[in-house]
What we know:
Layout: H1 41-47, E1 54-58, H2 64-71, E2 75-80, H3 83-96, E3 100-104, E4 118-124, H4 133-143, E5 144-155, E6 179-181, E7 201-203, H5 207-217, E8 220-227, E9 245-251
Parallel strand pairs: 1-2, 1-4, 2-3, 4-5
Antiparallel strand pairs: 5-9, 6-7, 8-9
Amino acid sequence: MSQPRAARRDWVPVAQTWVRDPEDKEPWRRIATMPALALNLAEQELIGPAAGRAVCTLGVSDGMAALALAAMGARVTVADPSQSLLDMLMIRARIIGVELDFVQTELLDLSAIHDRSFQLAYAAQATRQLEDIDRFYAEVYRILGPGGRLIVTEYHPVRRIWKQEPGHPRAECSYFDRRRTRDEDELIPDPNAPGLTLGRFDFSWTVSDHFGALAAAGFRVSALEEVGDVHQKWEIPNLKGLPEQLVLAADRDGD
């Protein structure tokens, strides 16, 4: 029986504690006591109790989620191709007093990780530069044990198509244009790795791409949330009213 319309949750606002102070240059220092700085309300609900669970975070990103999960009592392994980012996160973990394990590996080839090693996998902003999300999700399925869950958080694909110019938003490309090439003067600096860029190609997968790839890997998509609708300070056009983040939960059935 379907829920009454008023009982449905159309979208999830970003938790107030997750709205970071732009003047706070090192929010990771407070993550041990404020995990909501890294995990929005939808993610917290979908993760559930973390203590004692074996978790793999796929990609360092800003490292906040891995630190938060470890502070919540999870046994966290971080997988990323960049040794410099792993080293950065290792130092931060030591400073705030949490333990992390690390695996340097390409996200499209997780062969360094044994089958069925984890109960939970978490991937934030990990797929933008992956040219084959079918392969990525198949690898994640392999490293999850029966009944395991994958949480995927992405800057919402619908926010990726706009020209980076002030004023009324104008589309730069189609929502369905997956492979976008940047000119040399358009390369975006990597905020987590000074001196490096995020690359010439941006694979901006649609919501249906994620669904199709997860299903092909064997996952059962159990939740989809669209989180927040405010204007982010770093966005040049005002995208207020559009969803900020896409959060998916996908489960591996028990054997």
